[in-house]
Amino acid sequence: GTVLNPANTKAILEKHLKATGGRVYTRFPPEPNGYLHIGHAKAMFVDFGFACDANGCCYLRFDDTNPDAEKEEYIEHIKEIVEWMGWKPFKITYSSDYFQELYELAVELIKSGHAYVDHQTADEIKEYRENFKESPWRNRPVEESLDLFEKMKAGLIEEGQATLRMKQDMKNENYNMLDLIAYRVKKASHPRTKDKWCIYPSYDFTHCIVDSLENISHSLCTLEFESRRVSYYWLLDRLNLYLPYVWEYSRLNMTNNVLSKRKLNRLVTEKYVDGWDDPRLLTLAGLRRRGMPATAINAFCRSIGITRSDNLIRMDKLEHFVRDELNKTAPRTMVVLHPLKVVIENLEAAEEVEGKRLPDDPSATYKMPFTRVVYIERSDFRTKDSKDFYGLAKGKSALLRYAYPITCVDYVCDKDGEVIEIRATYDAKKSIKPKGVLHWVPEPAEGARPLEVEVRLFDRLFLSEDPAELKDTWLEDLNPHSKQVIHGAFALDNLRTAKPGDRFQFERTGYFCVDPDSSAEKLVFNRTVTLKTSYP
Ligand code: ATP
Ligand code: MG
Ligand code: MG
Hints:
Elements: H1 10-20, E1 25-28, H2 38-53, E2 57-62, H3 72-84, E3 92-94, H4 99-111, E4 115-118, H5 122-130, H6 142-153, E5 163-166, E6 181-185, E7 199-201, H7 203-213, E8 218-222, H8 229-238, E9 245-249, E10 252-254, H9 261-269, H10 284-290, H11 294-304, E11 311-313, H12 315-329, E12 332-333, E13 335-336, E14 339-344, E15 351-358, E16 361-370, E17 373-377, E18 397-400, E19 405-413, E20 419-426, E21 437-438, E22 440-442, E23 451-458, E24 483-491, E25 503-506, E26 510-514, E27 523-529
Parallel strand pairs: 1-2, 2-3, 8-9, 10-11, 12-25, 14-20, 18-21, 23-27
Antiparallel strand pairs: 4-5, 5-6, 6-7, 13-24, 14-17, 15-16, 17-22, 18-19, 19-20, 23-24, 25-26, 26-27
Residues 31, 261 line the site of one magnesium ion.
Keywords: Aminoacyl-tRNA synthetase, ATP-binding, Ligase, Nucleotide-binding, Protein biosynthesis
Domain tRNA synthetases class I (E and Q) anti-codon binding: 437-515
GO molecular function: ATP binding; glutamine-tRNA ligase activity
């Protein structure tokens, strides 16, 4: 095979060092063909994080060489979500900024005998590669390739009729050295360059050249690109360009979900979920909407480390970091998801009691009335008592958090036998010490209904831990109960002023975040995570 351990010449290296001052230069290179996901959070942690730690620079570079799949909407979203994650690009660039230079380098490559215009179909190319056979056009004269490439550029050749291929090594055991495609004819309008070009460079042609032109010192990418490293260096060496240091790390995968953009795209466009920012997806937009702080996502990325081993990480690991942060920062409040009315018979007049916002801050408190009618969680009452049950049952007591112990003296059922009201007495002296502590919501004023809110609860999107293993049947593995919407939950009155994005701990039920679907009439909350892990 070809000798592939090229060294930079002194002149190239000097030019590079002059541009960077010897500092670390990295890039985060998303293709704008979808929204970013938690795997990209890892990639950003590596690319931006490494540059940041080394006092270097990290580009946000849109790898926009495939106009079929790329959209302005994705570009705008990616810029915004990178900033939300806390990263500040040194510069924002686009592979398409370099289309002219890339084209000129392609011409140079043809001239030096390292590229040729080919007419094989995709199937023929595949078959020939499998048999290590050369295309019949491989050894055509340089002049002919130059002329045809010019015609490709001028729009005189139809899609599929010609490609520009790098003249690499058709005997190489590495598939990614078998004359990779450098350019294709594509009569598509590009989000940025519009109709200026009808030939587009491939990833393999573009990525290494743009890395080099941007003076990237460390080109960090995921392991599936490892086998393309040989070609990366082959091309830069043939063009006498500076050689960045390439280093690979493993892709992140998460249990019970998918990260491939192709799959995410299907889930979104075929409406299995409610858009790219559906809180059940592991897109960063989805995680944000669900209430996960960017700092917790970054802490998670730090914890999983940067390795070369395959990794399928459990969802509870991410949730651990989210709980850890929200426990310290999300103020506590009380919301009853499925309200059941309790009448406290011996309470004559409402009294004010004080709730706690944050465990570590005794001064963070809120006031609420303890009223004759309060609401508790339906599941905190049972007609049949048992030893391991700490809620209310006839004759049994429980503490209303921040208020008083109450004892159930009776209950009322409707004609279908459903419990609709609890009758109770309270212990003004707090002499009884029940084991159970209940969250509850008072009446804001006598006879008035508490603030009603909508609550959305989420469960794993896929039933199996690794849906990617299922190949073609992955969609059948979707969890039919991944989203549950509760209408008419009762909240403390002081939640009335909550704004989209605000985060809370609802005592005993989890951490919640105000959804952007909220309006002046109705607040909507998403459960970010439960208080304890829900993954066995
Ligand atoms: P997909 O295969 O889902 O389309 P991609 O790798 O093509 O993903 P890009 O937008 O090109 O997605 O990725 C930008 C950067 O993020 C690349 O460096 C890529 O290696 C990295 N990246 C993408 N997915 C993951 C992941 N799951 N874990 C770690 N890094 C990732
Ligand atoms: Mg990519
Ligand atoms: Mg891709």
